[in-house]
Structures are given as C-alpha cells and as structure tokens.
Amino acid sequence: MIGKAREGDPVTVTGLGCHVPERVLANEELARLVDTSDEWIVTRTGIRERRIAAPEEALSDIALPACRRALADAGVEGADLDLIIVATVTPDMAFPASAALLADVLGASKAAAYDLSAGCTGFMYALAQAYGMVAAGLVEKALVVGGDVLSKILDWDDRSTLILFGDGAGAVVLERSRSGGGFLGFELGAEGAGGVHLWLPGSGSRAFDESEKHVKMNGREVFKFATRVLVSSAEQVLAECGRTVEDVDLYVPHQANVRIIDHATRKLGIPEEKVVINVDRYGNTSSGSIPLALADAAGDGRLRPGQLVLMTGMGAGLTWGSALIEWTEEVGSA
Ligand SMILES: CC(C)(COP(=O)(O)OP(=O)(O)OC[C@H]1O[C@@H](n2cnc3c(N)ncnc32)[C@H](O)[C@@H]1OP(=O)(O)O)[C@@H](O)C(=O)NCCC(=O)NCCS
Predict the structure, then answer these.
(1) 3-state SS, residue 219
(2) Residue 120 C-alpha to ligand 1 middle, in angstroms?
(3) How far, in Å, CA of 299 to CA of 313, rounded?
(4) What is the pLDDT of residues 241-262, one digit of tens each?
(5) Ligand 1: which of 28, 90, 160 to mutate, judged by most atoms within 8 Å of the beta carbon?
(6) Residue 171, beta-bridge partner list
(7) pLDDT tens-place string over residues 64-107
C-alpha cells in the first residue's frame, strides 16, 4: 500500500511522549545468564543495554506514562480523544484491548479504542490508520501508541533472541495542522511467506507444542529482509511524495540493530548525522522503537519544526512501513 496525503488541511503530530521501565539490563549481566559476551553483542548489534519491565508491569503500565506525556505535550485531555490505537504484540491480554484499558484510565470515554498487531512495524501501521481517520474527518484527536514488553515472551535461555530485545513505549497525538506541514505519505507492506522467520507460534488459536510459547527467529533471514525493505520502502515513499533522499533532514529507522541501520543509510545515501540511533540504550523495543527514537531526537533538539522526517519500520509478519512527515510544532518537551 502506498499513498500520498490528500488535499486539504494536513494532519500532523501535536504531542509526543515516551516511557521505559526503570530496570536496566546491561550486556555484562546477560552474559551471566547465557553463553554470550558484551563484545559479541556490541559488535553484531550495537546494543549495550536495554530496559526490562518488572514482573507486575504489563504493556498498559509502560504505555500510560507515555500517553500522559504525549497528551500534556499536545495540550489535549483524555476526554477530548476520539480514537486510541495501541500497536503492540504484547498487550496486557488478548482481550480486552490494552487501548480500551488505557482509554478508561485516561478518561477517554468517547474514544474508539483498539489494539493493532503488525510486529515491530505496528506503530507505522497505526500512524497510517489514525492519519486516515483524521484526514477523512471521522476523528479530530487521535492517540497513537507503540509499545511492547517483549521480555515477557522471550525464551530466557535463547541467546539468539534474548540479547536483541527490550521493553518501552511511545505515544503521539495526531490532529489537523493549523500551520501546514504534517504527513506527506505512507508506504506499508507485508510478506506472510516470511512469517516463520520471526514468530510466536503457540500464542493463538493454532495448536502447537506446549514448548512453542516463546519468540523464535531466523536472524539471518530477518537481517536480509530488514536491509532490503528499509531501503525499498523509504525509496518508494519518497518517490510517491515527490521528494528525494537529499530532502530528508532526519531519518528515524526501526531500532533493531546498528548494522541493519548502517546498511540502510549507506544504500540510501543518508549521512550519519541525520540518522537517529538509540538501539545502544534500549535494544529493539518493537512497536516502541520509532516513537522512542522520535522522543529522544526531540529531547536533544535534533527534531525541529520544518524538518522533513523519514521513518521506516519493519518486523514480524513480515511487515514494513514508512511515513514521511514535515514536522510542525515544538512537540516532545513534556
Ligand atoms: C541475530 C543477529 C544479531 C546474529 O548476527 P549474525 O552476524 O547473523 O550471527 P549468526 O546468526 O550468523 O551467528 C554467528 C555465530 O554467533 C553465534 N551466536 C548467535 N548468537 C550469539 C550470542 N548472543 N552470543 C554469542 N554468539 C552468538 C552463532 O551460534 C554462530 O555461531 P557459529 O558460527 O559457531 O554457528 C543478526 O542476524 C540480526 O540482527 N538479525 C536480525 C534480527 C532482528 O533484527 N530481529 C528483529 C526484527 S524486528
């Protein structure tokens, strides 16, 4: 799916917030749990540490502070929200949706609220959906949340996946823009045939062995897929919107692995200083990854109004998704 923003009032991000659990798990500590080393993890992934949720913390607990920050940043009350979409593969439970639980706590009594599952690409899919609803006039104020607590579904004896993932969440508020700018277009896709390369077999209605309850991954296949789609999706959305790589001021890729990001930025020809990287501190937080990176860039002054921002996610499904936005307001200060 590919599409340009429609004519009329643009839709933009008016608030941004993120949250990570307190507990820091450094590579050295992981090396005491499984047969790995700080040196191996840093060389192969660029990850140094990640955050891990407490046993009693579920997705909605991690997401709630991010939502509150995004709402405060936008100057929007929970009661004003028309829509809440939570992109996650680790909801509190299969149902009710974490979005509905969050709507209740936030006092968003008139909001439609549902979860969306598109692996680590979930936030990009959710952005596109919310964009569509705001642009069509169905919704005025939307809260889009991306977050995961993958630590809860990992096999803590499997070094190939354990080292990669961390917990965290981010949220944005979407509204019509009063000052131009905003989203220019999206490109989303899925290749179900590759689904078995990154999956959680025993998590739904299909019968699997009792042992199939954890994330399973074919790292090399996912690596090849990731490097391919990060480039093709970015190129497609830029072309659709009549922009070039040279126009991009800030590139916010899914934070899976520094080597994957380096490969994509080299192929695309985006200079290092325009690339947001925080995978070293958080690992791969799945749906939380892109909003966390946006919040980091806003926090250190790298994300500013007027900039053309390219975001591309990829993950389980296998799925991918890009968005191009002209950043509008001083968000991210809450
Ligand atoms: C997982 C990943 C880091 C592995 O890196 P790699 O360079 O492909 O490494 P390989 O899988 O080829 O393994 C190389 C060796 O390291 C070993 N190894 C694997 N994990 C290890 C670990 N945590 N510590 C130490 N050694 C490890 C392997 O057993 C293998 O040993 P062998 O050569 O004796 O068989 C890499 O494939 C990757 O990042 N893939 C994408 C994963 C991803 O991003 N998933 C989420 C997408 S949203």
Answers:
(1) helix
(2) 19
(3) 21
(4) 999 999 999 999 999 999 999 9
(5) 160
(6) 17, 145
(7) 999 999 999 999 999 999 999 999 999 999 999 999 999 999 99
| Cα→Cα distances 303→10, 28, 108, Å | 19, 32, 29
Q: Answer whether residue 23 shows pLDDT above 60.
A: yes
Which atom of ligand 1 lies at the shortest distance from residue 36's CA? 24
Compute the half-sphere exposure of residue 187: CA atoms within 13 Å on the CB side of its CA: 19
CA torsion angle for 277, 156, 214, 91 (degrees, to 10)? -60
- Pick the residue whose CA is nearest to atom 28 on ligand 1: 160
CB under 8 Å to 104, separation ≥6 — which residues? none
Q: Which atom of ligand 1 is nearest to the CA of 259?
A: 39
Pocket around ligand 1 at a 6 A CB cut-off: 36, 40, 44-45, 120, 159-160, 163-164, 198, 217, 219-220, 222-223, 226, 256-257, 284, 315
- 91 within 8 A of 122, measured Cβ to Cβ: no
pTM of this prediction? 0.96
